[in-house]
Design brief:
Shape: elongated
Order of helices and strands: HHH
Largest sheet: none
Number of strands: 0
Radius of gyration: 18 Å
Structural class: mainly alpha
Helix content: over 70%
């Protein structure tokens, strides 16, 4: 079983990877909107896709921030309390 620190590191790696590709998709979409990359999609459709990509990037950044700010509160570091993690992530 992984320690909480190992779980946190792996979760951050996974989110970083997803965030990297979401940002690349957003950049590609912007190039398509500018006409640099040819596409058959209409400008309105590209704009809708851009909104979706922006939402995805925002959600992934939120998750990354929540994981980074999570602090283990229990003495036993061999197990993470899922309810505690959810509560910590949803705090504003």
């Amino acid at each position: 079983m992984l320690t909480p620190q190992q779980l946190k590191e792996r979760a951050l790696n996974k989110i970083d990877s997803k965030l990297f590709f979401a940002i690349k998709d957003l950049q590609r979409n912007e190039l398509e909107m500018d006409g640099v990359i040819p596409t058959k999609m209409s400008y309105d459709d590209l704009n809708n896709v851009k909104f979706s990509y922006e939402c995805e990037v925002d959600v992934l950044r939120f998750i990354k921030t929540a994981i980074e700010s999570y602090k283990q509160t229990e003495i036993d570091e061999s197990q993470i309390d899922l309810e505690d993690l959810i509560n910590e992530m949803t705090k504003r």
